[in-house]
Amino acid sequence: MAKDSAKDTAKEGKDAAAPEQYGDVVGRLEGVVAQLEAGTLSLEDSLKAFEEGIKLVRRGEQLLNAAEHRIELLLSEEGKDTAVPLQTGVKPPALPSAPRRGPPSADEDVPF
């Protein structure tokens, strides 16, 4: 039965147009991932599901890029602010750690 639903999903991915809403893309992608993780698909169906997943990831990127561009336009037109492009893969600066005071006192060791 799982194979039948996998084949149906693979057909839907082939026949259905790419979702227009980001939430729909994520929902369909989660379904594809669940099918692949279940390990019940044949090799052919797994490849089809993987292909659909790649297409969904690319569509999600397109939607996010379009939203980012729209936000940049809104900020530059209405707020007169200069929009800074989003930088991916950049780690935020580390927060300073609290200074250590030494071993805890007997009062600090109380669990409540």
Order of helix and strand elements from N to C terminus:
HHH
Unreliable sequence segments: 1-7, 9-15
Helical fraction: 55-70%
- Largest sheet data: none
Distance between the termini: 53 Å
Give the tally of β-strands: 0
Structural class: mainly alpha
Number of helical regions: 3
Beta-strand portion reads: under 5%
Layout of helices and strands:
Elements: H1 2-15, H2 22-38, H3 43-78
Helix pairs in contact: 1-3, 2-3
Structure description:
With 112 residues, this protein is mostly helical. The protein is 60% helix and 0% strand. The protein contains 3 helices and no strands. The model is unreliable at 1-7 and 9-15 (pLDDT under 50).
Task: Please sum up the structure shown.
The protein is mainly alpha-helical and 112 residues long. The protein has helices at 2-15, 22-38, 43-78.
Keywords:
112 residues, disordered N terminus, 3 helices
